[in-house]
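Consider the following input, taken from an annotated entry for SCO0930 family lipoprotein (Streptomyces luteosporeus).
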Amino acid sequence: MDKRHSASLTAAAVAIVALTAGCGGSPAAQGRTDAQPAADSSQAGGYGSGYGGKGSGSGAAGTAPDATAGMLAVRQTADLGPVVTDSKGFTLYRFDKDTAKPPASHCDGDCAKAWPPVPAGDASAAAGVRTGDLGQVVRADGSRQLTLAGWPVYRYAKDTSPGDAKGQGVGGTWNALAPDGGKAGKTGAGKDNGAGKDNKDDKGGQDGKDGAAGLSVSDNPKLGRILVDGQGRTLYRFAKDNPWPMKFGCTGACLDTWKPAKPAEKAKVKDVPEKLVSTVTRPDGTQQLAIDCWPVYWFTGDSAPGDVNGQGKQGLWFAVDDKGHKVTAAPAT
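Applying the prediction step yields:
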């Protein structure tokens, strides 16, 4: 092979890598589920709140991330009904991206800092929890995690006191555990099938209704051609996020108002260049749609398709046009 041919092949390979990377080489932008965003210093306290380091005994009730559950208990709550807790009264959770049949945990890295896996250890069942439902799963790092009815069990780092359930519904994929291993607050009609899904749509989830995973262009009379999700909701990006290195500025209470958009299904993307569409992984392990590598959100203050009430909010939130750019124009009055 002559040098010119070799050089042309090398150049072509570089071009392919550049096109594939798309987001400055970010693996998260390529939709890899193992991608971990860069640490966000604004979130570090949130991950550790209520939990000390290994063996430190600091934090709420001296509960460290590696603490075993002890004797599980069932607590009755007004909103969710019966919820499983550890022996200190801390709420226990399950993750929709895990599976129960077979048991498998998919929360690692930064996700496991926000959601400490509960070690199998000396867990035992109190009244209301079947002893036969307790088990364990071997995690990627070789440690053994407690399971309930096959579902890997976690705590939430932002639960700082016994009885807290701040993790309920986070990202539409985290739920307090019911005594049978299902999602707390669900009826029999929403019973899990063990594969990480319910038999019906979870209306309390990240987006809920069918079609939320779509992506298309809308001719908005106020802002022009902007991107919307499968329900016609305007998609926004946040100036405090950063695409590379990946940083999420909208966390905690921000997510009560600005909801991360679900990753788009390829078959449901219309009139949007494929190169602009990607998926990023949030610190809690959930995945979010990104446009031109920027995470995008929908605004709870938009009550109908075509609403752009979030445009320009706090000088930080902007709709996205069909070329992936933020829209800086103010809504027409």
